[in-house]
Structures are given as structure tokens and as C-alpha cells.
Design brief:
The protein is α+β, with helices and mostly antiparallel strands and 112 residues long. The chain is 37% helix and 29% strand. The chain is built from three helices and eight strands; from the N terminus they run αββββαββββα. The relative contact order is 0.18.
């Protein structure tokens, strides 16, 4: 991972340190942060944030500037996997918006 991705991972780690137990793993070329075995977010190269949400939420968020459906290798993922550009993540409040969106989706998925 490059320096921008590592810096983003440090920021995410700091924001998640006060919450429930979060596991950190390297997977898919990403520094992924998991809660209850599910990916919440991931720090990718060039400081791009990978965010996992539900399809409906993703469909409304993907229209925001700096947000696109994630591409992993040759595969374009669905609306539940979003790439958020570093320009959208300028401060911790902006980053926290995306972390919270992922947490809400994770909680909804756990409830069934």
C-alpha cells in the first residue's frame, strides 16, 4: 500500500478506536476494518476509502461528488461497495460520515 493509503488507514484506525472491537486485515489490496466479520471500510491505495453499505443506501450515496461504485480487479462491484475519493475525506468529520454509514449498514445486516 502507498503512503496515502497508510495515512488513511491511520485516520480510520483512530476514529474506530473508541468503538466496539474492530478487526483489521489486509485483503484485496486494502487495509480492511471489519466488525463482526464483515468489512466496514477499507483504506486503498491513493487514499481511496472503500465503504460497504446496503444496496439502497449505496444507490443514494453513489451520486455524491467523489463517490463511485468500487472496482476490484476486473470486476465492478454493486452499489453496496463504494470508493470515496480522498478529496471527499479532507477532515475527520467527513471521514466519520462514511464510517458511520458503513456501521449503520452493518448493524442492519446483523438484525436481519
Amino acid at each position: 500500500m502507498d503512503a496515502a493509503g497508510e495515512e488513511l488507514a491511520d485516520r480510520v484506525r483512530a476514529l474506530l478506536s473508541n468503538g466496539p472491537e474492530v478487526e483489521e486485515k489486509r485483503m484485496f489490496g486494502t487495509r480492511a476494518f471489519l466488525l463482526d466479520g464483515r468489512i466496514l471500510v477499507g483504506a486503498r491505495k491513493n487514499g481511496v476509502l472503500l465503504v460497504r453499505v446496503d444496496e439502497e443506501t449505496g444507490a443514494s450515496l453513489v451520486i455524491r461528488p467523489g463517490v463511485s461504485v468500487a472496482v476490484m480487479g476486473a470486476k465492478t462491484m454493486g452499489n453496496s461497495w463504494l470508493d470515496v475519493s480522498p478529496g471527499v475525506l479532507a477532515d475527520d468529520d467527513a471521514l466519520m460520515f462514511w464510517v458511520d454509514a458503513a456501521r449503520e449498514a452493518n448493524e442492519a445486516a446483523q438484525q436481519g
